[in-house]
């Protein structure tokens, strides 16, 4: 139940709210002074952990019951069933969405500029504010994000296609 609550909390609330809460509220509530980069890293880690756990939960649930029945019929121990039959199949099914989640996290990292951490978006905002030319600089930031994210999404597609060709069942 605690793990389910954790996953639902971090998947069910916007990442921006999580960043604000960890950055502004965490030090007040717990009385701990957290450096800005650590608080951002903590918020992104908590968020991505919840997303990743849900990805692998779905991958594990996607293993057909026939696989489990076959393990029982062969007399495999529970540990052997998990290690040699279920986990490899779940890993193959979980890798493509996991890689897509990593690309999404890269794009969502633009939100860290909202708490004053210097990243690409933060620098773009500062330049656009100082030059009074937001269209040019924020468009340049969008192009840079696209130039990084698009090849990554294509790479994820290539990896997924290779995995399907090699390990299709």
State the main characteristics.
single chain, mainly alpha, 7 helices
Short characterization:
With 169 residues, the chain is an all-alpha fold.
Describe the fold and architecture.
With 169 residues, the protein is mainly alpha-helical. It is 83% helix and 0% strand. It contains 7 helices and no strands. The protein has helices at residues 2-12, 15-30, 36-61, 65-74, 78-108, 120-131, 134-167. Helix 5 (78-108) packs antiparallel against helix 7. The model has no long low-confidence stretch (mean pLDDT 89).
Which helices and strands appear, and what pairs or packs with what?
Elements: H1 2-12, H2 15-30, H3 36-61, H4 65-74, H5 78-108, H6 120-131, H7 134-167
Distance between the termini: 34 Å
Overall morphology? flat
Mean pLDDT: 89
The structural class is mainly alpha
Number of helices: 7
SSE order: HHHHHHH
**Strand tally:** 0
Specify the helix fraction band. Answer: over 70%
Low-confidence stretches: none
Rg, nearest Å: 21 Å
Beta strand %:
under 5%
Main sheet overview = none
